# Entry
Amino acid sequence: MGICGSGKSTIAIEVARAKRIEMLDADDFHPPRNVEKMKSGTPLTDEDRAGWLQALNEELKSRLDKGDSVVLACSALKQRYRDVLNAGLPQVRWLYLRGDRETILQRVSQRQDHFMPSSLVDSQLEALEEPVDAVVVDIRLPIEEIVAKALAEL
# Structure
């Protein structure tokens, strides 16, 4: 978890590859109206996120009920969002990709083919409630080090 541009998808792909499990990107579960809102530079509200978070929780439950393991890349900015995501799922563990504003802005401005504009970085930083129950990793570390820490500590 982490704000836009923190490397959630990249790290999730690598962790999933190392564990030989599936990776899900929460962005793929946003309803079209949320995507359009973000594309226009408008931050999502808690109401916008409610159904999305519930759908993600249900997807995780479905997969875990079948005995599958999964890595989910998701912003999960607030504790109440994380509470919805892991409701009824005591096996969920969190990796928080912590980054400073300048690094995030640089990364987001270099992305192509993504709906999240750099204008939303500040709103995500304002909304962020850093988790107290997560493995915390500095996003400036090399990808290999971040993945190694995730694999060792989760």
About this structure: The mean pLDDT is 91.
